[in-house]
Structure formats: structure tokens, C-alpha cells
Write a structure and sequence with these properties.
Strand content: 25-35%
Distance between the termini: 45 Å
Shape: globular
Largest sheet: 6 strands, mixed
Number of strands: 12
Helix content: under 10%
Number of helices: 2
């Protein structure tokens, strides 16, 4: 395909106050870094916006980001959302904490959704993303956080479509009810945001199949209308290679702080 969704480009603040806690050393200070691999990150520590002293985790306020036009209610609760979609593996390790106390929040549902390597969202495949929602569920779903506030989700590295950089949408809910069909209902939505990927790594990913068949001109982080160059405080993942090549995939870590009151 050469054209994909085009109307996920406007920024509309959601209006709830949330925070993102820096990953890496700060997460270690919160005693949750054990859930994330300790390895070289995608950028030097001295240059990372998420670098912080281990002795003092700082809660950094940040605005929420637009939900976009491709959200679907009631998606599946599952740790693996790939459904056989081709792409470099991406293992997300997302930790949810209370912004006032920095204490991890257990049993919070962390939900993600994003496009595939060719820029298509499930439920909106074809017609440049403007078709009526279908029954597709690939690259959508979420899991409950464990007692350390950690949600582990397996997906693939996102592709891109016209007008947006590579990104993953995320929501955090509490108090949800799990349903017999594997989905969820109810609860309180605490956070709506987006996760972003290091531009150097995305450039490497774009050279391998199936991403190399996506001929849409890619919008970079610097060109994106929503990402504000705020590093981890704006959703930039810390990416750790799973192997020696881009196609081997990455682990992506970030700690999300949310306002619970």
C-alpha cells in the first residue's frame, strides 16, 4: 500500500493531569527496574532526556496526548497482541505508578493500539483508514499490571503512515471488570498518551522487511505534529536491542505516572 490513515495528525489535549516518570536509573530507584532488562540503551545516558540520579526519582508532569481517530472500545485483555503480524518484535515493559507517591499501581489495565508495518490499523483496514470499523483486532489489547505495577505486552515495532511519526497509543484504566469473552468493561480511565521510538532505531527498522515495502514518506520525530521533543517525559521509550540486527527487535521500557485522585 502507498496511502494510509491521514487524520491522526491534530493535537487535542485530553485535559486530565498525568505524569511520566523517567525510565532507567529513576525506575531502579523505585525498585521496579528489575522488570526491565539492564542493557545498553538506544542513546548514551549522558544524552538521554530520561537520565536521572538513582537516589531521587523525580515525578515530571506532562500533558496527555490525543487519542486519535482509531481507538476501539472493549479490546482483548492479552499479553501478546501480534496475531501473526509480521515485523520486528517489540516487548513493552510499562510500569504504572501514582504521581503523588511514586508507588506502583497493581491491577491497572494498560491498553495499547498501533498500526502495522504498512501503516494499517485493525478495524480500519483499507480506504486510507476511512472505512467503517471491521472486526479486526491485530495490534490491539492490554494487560493488568502485576504487584510491581508492571505491564508486559508483546507486539511488533510499529510502521508509519502519512503525516505521523512512528508511535503507539496507550491508555491506563483502573477498576475494570474482565468479561467472559476476554475483554473488559467499566473502570476509570486515568491516562491517554502515546509512546515514541528513537529515530536512529526507526531508520534501521525501515530498511528491513516488511517495513522496507512501506513506500509512504516517513514523518520523523522532529517533523511530527504531536511529539514535542520532550524525551521520556513525552513518551519516548528506552529501547534495548534483543539481538545483533534490527530485525531481532527491541525491548521498550517506560514508567507511566498517573494521577489517581
Amino acid at each position: 500500500m502507498t496511502d494510509s490513515p491521514t487524520n491522526d495528525t491534530s493535537e487535542a489535549p485530553v485535559g486530565r493531569r498525568t505524569v511520566l516518570i523517567a525510565t532507567g536509573a529513576s525506575a531502579a530507584a523505585l525498585a521496579v527496574a528489575a522488570a526491565a532488562p539492564v542493557a545498553a540503551t538506544s542513546t548514551p545516558v549522558a544524552d538521554r532526556a530520561d537520565a536521572a540520579p538513582a537516589a531521587a526519582a523525580v515525578c515530571t508532569l506532562t500533558k496527555e496526548m490525543t487519542e486519535g481517530p482509531y481507538y476501539l472500545d472493549g479490546q482483548l485483555v492479552r499479553a501478546d497482541v501480534t496475531e501473526g503480524k509480521a515485523g520486528a518484535p517489540l516487548k513493552l515493559v510499562l510500569t504504572v505508578v501514582d504521581d503523588d507517591t511514586c508507588v506502583p499501581i497493581s491491577n491497572a489495565l494498560v491498553e495499547i493500539w498501533h498500526c502495522d508495518a504498512l501503516g494499517e490499523y485493525s478495524g480500519f483496514v483499507g480506504n486510507n483508514g476511512h472505512s467503517e470499523p471491521d472486526d479486526g483486532t491485530f495490534l490491539r489489547g492490554g494487560v493488568l499490571t502485576n504487584t510491581s505495577g508492571v505491564a508486559n505486552i508483546t507486539t511488533v515495532y510499529p510502521g508509519w503512515y502519512r503525516g505521523r511519526c512512528v508511535h503507539i497509543h496507550v491508555k491506563v484504566h483502573t477498576g475494570v471488570t474482565l468479561t467472559s469473552d476476554g475483554s473488559f468493561t467499566g473502570g476509570q480511565e486515568l491516562h491517554t498518551g502515546q509512546l515514541f521510538c528513537n529515530e536512529t532505531i526507526t531508520t534501521a527498522i525501515a530498511k528491513v522487511s516488511p517495513y522496507s515495502t512501506n513506500k509512504v514518506t516517513r514523518t520523523t520525530l522532529a517533523q511530527d505534529s504531536i511529539y514535542d521533543d520532550g524525551g521520556a517525559s513525552s513518551g519516548l521509550l528506552t529501547l534495548t536491542a534483543l539481538g545483533s540486527t534490527a530485525s531481532s527487535g527491541y525491548t521498550g521500557t517506560l514508567t507511566l505516572g498517573v494521577e489517581t485522585s
